[in-house]
Amino acid sequence: MNKESNTYIFTYSAVLVIIVAVLLTAAALWLQPYQQRNKENEERINILKAAGIADVNKDNTTQLFEQHCTATLTLDENGKNTENGELKLYVIDNQTSVIPMRGNGLWGPIWGYIAIAPDGTIIGANFDHKSETPGLGGEITTDKFQSQFAGKQFMSNGKQLPIEVDAITGATKTSNGVKEMIDKTMQMYLPYFESITSQNGEMK
What we know:
The protein has helices at 6-50, 61-68, 143-146, 172-200; strands spanning 69-75, 87-92, 96-104, 109-116, 122-129, 155-156, 159-160. By secondary structure, it is α+β, with helices and mostly antiparallel strands. The strands form two sheets. The protein has a five-stranded antiparallel sheet, sandwiched between helices. Helix 1 (6-50) crosses helix 2. The longest helix is centred in the first third of the chain and has 45 residues, at 6-50.
């Protein structure tokens, strides 16, 4: 075949594209389990930290999670644990409820976890973001911002209480996004907490 012909050039380019596509697909498939494991590991770290478990790192996460996470629930809209439920809830040491949250900041998605004690007190919370501005909205990932939630009351006399958020200077939109995320998430989980309140008299 004439190497300068259009047919040769087209065939060569097509074969090269196919080879590159196959290699990229193979690499993606090979990396997928590692990426999934890293994602699960990061999620477990955040769950444990929100619940106040100290000295959590990537090396001891699996051990600590298996030790402390006594149940993983999937709740329906009525707060019932069911296989078809869409609301995840992690029970730490048979008492603390850790809830995943997702919302919107100024520039994109924000997310996190909040841990609730049996009496309705917030034990801790942590947050992360995709594209908030460093030094402004990005401050939601700092201990200074996250520590304000510990000790606040989520429920009183069986009713949900609004969670006040001390806004980050210059990042009102992101701060409001965190508050809205917490309030909406807790509203979805309210039937579950109401049910356990009626069972054991906690969260008063």
